[in-house]
Each structure stands twice: as structure tokens, then as C-alpha cells.
Amino acid sequence: MMQDKQYLMIPGPTPVPPSVVAAMSRPMIGHRSEDFAALHRRIQEKIRQVFQTKEDVFILTNSGTGGLETAIANVVSPGDRVLALITGNFGERFTKIARAYGAEVDEVSFGWGKDVDLSVVREKLAGNPGYKAVLATQNETSTGVLNDIAGIGALVAETPALLLVDGVSGVGGIEIRMDEWHVDILVTASQKAMMLPPGLAMIGVSSRAWEVIEKNRAPRFYFSLPAARKSLEKWNTAYTPNVALFQGLDAALDMMMNEGMENVYARHRLLARAVRAAVRALGLEPLAADHCASPTVTAVRSPEGLGADDIRKVLKEELGITFAGGQGILKGKIFRIAHMGFAGKMDVILGIGGLEMALARLGYPVELGAGVRAAQEVFLGRNE
Ligand SMILES: *Cc1c(COP(=O)(O)O)cnc(C)c1O
Asked: What is the pLDDT of residue 128?
């Protein structure tokens, strides 16, 4: 029985709602059929609301990294100058992709746990450095830091550079306004706040970006956005898509539309607030400062003398709860609690209750119930 009672609280893949699982279990349909075209069209109408864009959003059958590669492959030619704003592991990955395509990358690292400093961006963009693109991460999953995409977008929009945003662990859980915030390419993926299994990337492309994409002569095939656009005109995809995930996406978007995006965003902010209050009540500290705290994932420093991975091991082996560990330079130093997508108040209560037990088992002086109580108080509106 306990093998099926698992509590997955990592920043992707995330739990999938039963109605989405049911939609994915429907009979297969042909991807060149009228039924698929109707499905694709319904998805398009809804996903544009999530992206807050009037532009096309392409649904590609690959992981989030494939979506990031699509953005780079269609924009960057060898020798192009690119500015990379790095706040952790995923900012570094975006940079590596740009390098792989021959970009000359100007890297600015703000430190793991810090957010992008707009004054640095302003300085970098001043004096006409000739950047073709600026790379930014909306929600840095490795550190639980939320970056100010509206602020970055306002600065980049004053230059000829395109703004490419990795929104993989944010879109669907954290507000983003692609058009209004001057985001030229926005990428997300299915397995984070979108409540689906892994396997789809979604990518919105602005008209400003299209001017660059059409002129770009760098090689691309599976990742070609012009090919994707030609197919979307017929509510089709260039190659065989993951049809089951498209069916699931339709259902997941219905759930979001029914809840209302404002409510979805408020739910995520509330969960983050509760988690932060709870870990502080246990004497632990979130990695990110309050002003840049991610609504979808919270990274927590492990206490002095306790390894973060030891806490995770007890949680997993004794309680069936999975938290994520640290990546890169934060390995063993932090654990990360995801509260994204199909996540609610009781998930936080459960995760924090488990954390208290794991800390106690490892001999850390913890007042049982203190974290749970802090979270409950946030949910009851008692600690405004
Ligand atoms: C998960 C994640 C990715 C990578 O997505 P994959 O689907 O694993 O390729 C990229 N960026 C961010 C911010 C992520 O959280």
C-alpha cells in the first residue's frame, strides 16, 4: 500500500491531477485529423491567456531544455553577441546552449540565491553593446528566486536586442505578461506549474522576434520555428506530437481557466508564504530574500551540522516525502520544497509536518508542530 502513497514535492515533474490523467487516457487520435486540429485550436486560445499574449504559442514535443534550444537555435547565429543574466543553474544552462550555437556570451552572474539587479542590466545595455539577445530566467528553480521580468523587459525594449525568457518553472503558477512586459520569446514546459507529465515545451514568439528569426540563416530542423508556424496555420504540428500530452494540456488549461489565473497566482503566493513562515518557525532560513521569493519553489538552507541530503533521505525513506536537493554549488547545503501546479494548503501542512519529524529524527532541536502551526496561521489569515 505505501508504495503508492508517495508525496512528490520536487520542482518537476510535479503531481498530475486525476482529471488530467483521465484526459490523457482517452483513445489516441490521429495528429492529422480534424479532432486534433480542434484540440490544438482550443489549447491555443487558452494558453495565450496564460502567456498573456496575442502571438502564437507553439507546443513542441520535447522537454523544457528543447524549448530553450528552440529559442536559441532560431535567433542566434555564430558570432552574435548575447547578454546572459544568471541567477543559478538554469541561467547557466541557457548560457551553455547559446555558446553551443556559437554566440559570444557576455555572462553576468548575480550569485546563487540573489535576483537580477536591474541597475547592472541598465549599465550593461548602455553604450550600444550590440547584443542580439538577452537571456533571463523568470523563476530560478535551483535557488527559489523570482526575477523581475517586467523590469528587465522595460530595459531591453529600449534596445534592438530580443528578450528570451526561461519561464519553465514559473509560467502557469506565476504571473507573466509576455506582450506587456516586452518578452520576445517565452519558454515553458509541461511538467512544472502546468500540471502535466514531462514531454512538452511551449514557446511564445513576438513579432519583433519573427523579424530576426526570418533573417537567421543558422541551421535548424526539428527545432525550426518557421516550420512550426507553417503547421500551426493549419492547427497542425510539423512532426508527430505527443498526442496524449496535448489531451492532458487541454484539461490542465481548463482547470486553470476555471480557477481563474489571478486565483492560481494568489494560491501559489500563499503557499510560498506559508512554507517560508513554517521553516522560519523551525529556526531554518529560506535561501532567497523575501523581495525575490519564488511563489512556486522554496529553497531552504540546512541547519548547521546537518546535511540537507540526510534530511531528504529520512523524509523519503521513512515518510515517502520527496524534497529536491541542491544543484551545483548548493549540493548538500539546501533542500527545495516545490509548491507548484497541482499543490494546495494540505500539501504544505504535510510537507512541513514531515520536515519536523525528519529534523527530530536527526537530533535537531525542533518543537514539533511549530512549523505546521506557522503555516496554519498563514492559511487562517492570522499573521498578516
Ligand atoms: C526544469 C527547468 C528547465 C529544464 O527543463 P527540462 O524539461 O528538464 O529540460 C529549464 N529551466 C528551468 C527554470 C527549469 O525549472
From this structure: 76
Rounded distance, CA 358 to CA 7, Å?
A: 15
Which residues on adjacent β-strands are paired with residue 140?
Answer: 145
Residue 384: the pLDDT is 59
Query: What residue ranges of the chain have pLDDT lower than 50?
Result: none
* Nearest of 302, 304, 370, 338 to residue 139 by alpha carbon: 338
Instruction: Give Cα 277 to chain centroid, integer Å.
Output: 23
Query: Quick check: helix, strand or coil at residue 210?
Result: helix
Specify whether the CB–CB gap between 116 and 148 falls below 8 A.
yes
Out of 86, 96, 135, 166, give the residue to mutate to test ligand 1, the one with the largest number of ligand atoms within 8 Å of its CB: 166
SS3 261: helix
Q: Which residue has the cell 503508492?
A: 4
Q: Which three cell numbers stand for residue 374?
A: 506557522
Percent above pLDDT 70 for the chain: 99
**Pocket of ligand 1 contains residue 169 by CB under 6 Å:** yes
| Ligand 1 within 6 A of CB of 137 | yes
Task: Report pLDDT for 129.
Answer: 85
d(C-alpha 299, C-alpha 93), whole Å: 19
Cell of 284: 531554518
> What's the pLDDT score for residue 36?
98
Residue carrying the nine cell digits 512549523: 371
- The answer to whether 50 touches 171, Cβ cutoff 8 Å, is yes
Partners of 201 in beta bridges: 60, 189
- Quick check: 353 and 278 in contact, CB under 8 A? no
Averaged pLDDT score across all residues of the chain: 97
User: Is residue 209 a contact partner of residue 158, using CB atoms and an 8 Å limit?
Assistant: no
- Sketch out the chain's domains with CATH numbers: 7-13+261-379 (3.90.1150.10), 18-258 (3.40.640.10)
Please tell me whether 26 is known to bind a ligand.
no
Q: Tell me which DSSP letter residue 105 carries.
A: E
Please state whether the predicted TM-score (pTM) of the whole model is above 0.70. Answer: yes
Q: For residue 167, what pLDDT is reported? A: 98
